[in-house]
Amino acid sequence: MTSHVSTVELRHGAKMPRVGLGTWPMSDREAETVIAQAIGLGYRLIDTAENYGNEAGVGRGIRASGVSREDVFVTTKFNRRWHGANLVAEAVSRSCDRLGVDYLDLMLIHWPNPAQDRYVEAWEGLAAMLKEGRVKAIGTSNFKPAHLDRVIAETGVVPDVNQIELNPLVTREAARSYHEKHGIVTESWAPLGGGGNSVLREPAVRDIAARIGITPGQVVLRWHLELGAVPIPKSSNRDRLADNLDVFGFELEPADIEAISALDQGEAMAADSDAFGH
Question: In whole angstroms, what is the distance from residue 52 CA to residue 249 CA?
């Protein structure tokens, strides 16, 4: 099955699908099954991390899908123990080994961990991996504009992607504006609002869904696309997997986008990457 998902070209040349599959908190066993199924439905962007403990299952799922490695955009992330210019190569090698791949499409620094203050060194190490071709694109996760300012100023290398918590209750306008100014693609984790999914129960979202004849989840994912973000919703349910990918055949009205964005509860709703990380 050929994916119908459109792509966005990253600054270092890689083309990333505009909707992907998140895999937290899947086990190896669950990931293997769900990812093979998701790829069969048309997913081509798979997001995992060292800290999720499921890279091996993700790799097995990719192989079980029967789709060639080159047609799947594989993203993973490394923890703070690898924050060093000479340590990132080992993080990349270990992730590749667990995934059973020869290269990564996108590698991210999972959290900046500013108290440790080695994320600039980690970025130097990632930039070296990009030059060597072990990774096709490099980026950050949970970096604030102040963190991005430092890595760009001290290395001259701009991330392809910054993956941040982003949904209608925490719209991250300042971060998105910064990304747009610097040519960084915004990728949204917990795009549907996380475990409680209160976003999907919001009257504004449900009213739009009813009017268009789609699910509340499709409304929210389309909102991400309209903002220029790449959402990576997680689901293990086949019907929801299919629905989450089926968001390219309609558009939202400007008033719809405004109504959804008006649900924003402020930056304080997001995980504080100055205080949390691993």
Answer: 32
CA distance 254 to 251: 9
Instruction: Please tell me whether the overall predicted TM-score, pTM, comes out greater than 0.85 for this model.
Output: yes
For 245, the 3-state DSSP assignment is helix
pLDDT digits 0-9 by tens, 43-58 = 999 999 999 999 999 9
Q: Which CATH class is domain 7-195+228-246?
A: alpha beta
Separation between Cα atoms, residue 95 and residue 20, nearest integer Å: 19
- Both tokens of 203, joined, read 């009257």
Backbone phi, psi, residue 73, to 5°? -90, 105
* Confidence at residue 195, expressed as pLDDT on a 0 to 100 scale: 64
The count of other CB atoms within 10 Å of the CB of residue 142 is 24
Residues annotated as catalytic (active site), given as ranges: 52
CB-neighbour burial class of residue 233 (10 A; exposed 0-12, middle 13-18, buried 19+): buried
Between β-strands 106-109 and 138-141, what pairing exists: parallel, antiparallel or unpaired?
parallel
**Tokens for 196?**
């409680």
